[in-house]
Every structure is written in structure tokens, then in C-alpha cells.
Specification:
Elements: E1 3-8, E2 13-18, H1 24-35, E3 42-47, E4 54-55, E5 76-81, H2 104-109, H3 114-121, H4 130-147, E6 155-158, E7 161-172, E8 184-189, E9 199-200, E10 203-204, E11 215-218, E12 223-225, H5 233-239
Parallel strand pairs: 1-5
Antiparallel strand pairs: 1-2, 3-4, 3-5, 6-7, 6-12, 7-8, 8-11, 9-10
Keywords: Chaperone, Cytoplasm
Domain CAP-Gly: 175-219
InterPro entries: CAP-Gly_dom_sf (IPR036859), CAP-Gly_domain (IPR000938), Ubiquitin-like_dom (IPR000626), Ubiquitin-like_domsf (IPR029071)
Length: 241
């Protein structure tokens, strides 16, 4: 059975499904197009729950399977680049990338653009009923927040998954998310399996710089408030002895 795992590198972060029967070499080959790091330059560090960091390595990586390591759902595999910093590609510096630029007025005049197509078909903000539709959406979000008793400081879980338990840290608009009218729920998860550290595009909603990636913003319909204490891995293990 495949296991969902967070793959984290210097230039990327994504959730992937890993098959435990893969060998270490197979995993590295699959991670190369994801991280941009050649297989021979990858160092894989497993971060699972409260356990110590484990290096996924072997003298015979072509025949050592991942099932020999304590993989857990939504644990982290940090992919470090062993190449010297001077020869690593810089994927974030766009200063030398050729760009096509156009002013807003020039774009407005084009007849073969997405904007022109939306105007012709009366879609989005060009829909005569757009304001009414947006108002209903905002009202529905407010209703969800009230009915689900979502409040800052309350414990909750997301999508009914116990692995995604946490504390509600923020309720409100999030301008950094494109096309995101209406309130979002900012949650600090108990485990570092989120999408951010409580900040988005330089704006901090909670926490401080350097915090783990345990933050996530979701719509209220995905949030379930209740008595969801922090899971104790030790207690779970003791019950299985």
C-alpha cells in the first residue's frame, strides 16, 4: 500500500505517494525530476513523528527497500543537495530569465486574450450576477463558521483525519491566496505536515520566522472543532505491545 509522504528540498515541497517496496535507488530516481537534484547528489533524511532523524542510505541502495525504514503517513523526507553551493542551479533567481511584458492598457485592448473571452461570455466579474453570486458565497462561509463553532484557540482536525489535528490560529481574509474572497481558517497542526510556517508571501499571521511548516489555511467546511488532543505516539505504541 502506498504511503503519503512530504518531500522537502531547498527549492520544492510537495506531498507524494511512496511505495514501500521501492528500493532507495528507485526513490532517488523518482525524486530527481521533483527536486532537481541528481540521484548521486541526494542525501535523504527521514523525519517521522518524535523519532530521531534517520538517514535513508545503504551500501547496496539498488537492493535495499524502503520498507526497511520506519515510514509513517505524512512523515517528511528531506532531500539535501550534496553538490557545492557554487554549482547548484538557482531556481529562484529570475533576473536573467527573458520575459514578455505588457501594460494593463495593452492587455485590455487585445481581442485574443482570456480577458476578452471572459468579457464576450460574461464570465467572472463580467457576469451581471457576479456580485450576487459572491455575496451568497461569503454568506455560506460565515454560516459554516458559525454552525461549526469555529473560534481562535479551539482544537480541531481537518477533513476528519486524526493526523491533521491542530489549533485554530486565525479566521479571516487571506489576500495572498489568489481569487480567495471570503474567510479562511488558519490552523497550526500538531505535526510539521503543513504548507507554511504561519506566514504567506511575507505576511505573518502567527508564529515567528524559523518555525516548522505546520501551518495551513483551509475553508471552514473542512474544519471539525472538538476534543482532539495532541496524539501521543508513545501511548499508541504501548497499546500495540
Amino acid at each position: 500500500m502506498d504511503i503519503p509522504i512530504n518531500i522537502i528540498s531547498e527549492n520544492s515541497s510537495s506531498e507524494r505517494r511512496i511505495t514501500p517496496s521501492w528500493t532507495i535507488s528507485q526513490l532517488k530516481a523518482k525524486l530527481e525530476p521533483v527536486t532537481g537534484i541528481p540521484t548521486q547528489s541526494q542525501s535523504l533524511i527521514l523525519e517521522a513523528g518524535g523519532q530521531s532523524l534517520i538517514t535513508i542510505t545503504s551500501k547496496d541502495e539498488d537492493n535495499t527497500r524502503l520498507e526497511e525504514f520506519p515510514l509513517q503517513r505524512y512523515c517528511n523526507i528531506n532531500v539535501k543537495d550534496l553538490r557545492p553551493a557554487t554549482i547548484r542551479p538557482n531556481y529562484t533567481d529570475l533576473s536573467n530569465v527573458p520575459k514578455f511584458e505588457i501594460t494593463p492598457d495593452q492587455y485590455e485592448q487585445k481581442t485574443d486574450s482570456v480577458l476578452a473571452w471572459k468579457k464576450a461570455n460574461k464570465l467572472g466579474r463580467f457576469n451581471p450576477s457576479a456580485t450576487e453570486i459572491q455575496d451568497k458565497t461569503l454568506q455560506a462561509l460565515e454560516k459554516e463558521i458559525k454552525e461549526r463553532e469555529i473560534k481562535v484557540g479551539y482544537r480541531c482536525r481537518i477533513d476528519g483525519e486524526d493526523i491533521k489535528r491542530g489549533v485554530i490560529m486565525y479566521i479571516g481574509e487571506v489576500e495572498e491566496i489568489p481569487n480567495s474572497a471570503g474567510k479562511w481558517i488558519g490552523i497550526k497542526l500538531d505535526e510539521p505536515i503543513g504548507k507554511n510556517d504561519g506566514s504567506l508571501s511575507g505576511k505573518r499571521y502567527w508564529g515567528k520566522e524559523g518555525d516548522s511548516k505546520s501551518g495551513i489555511f483551509v475553508r471552514p467546511q473542512r474544519v471539525e472543532v472538538g476534543d482532539f488532543p495532541i496524539l501521543d505516539d508513545l501511548d499508541d505504541n504501548m497499546q500495540e505491545i
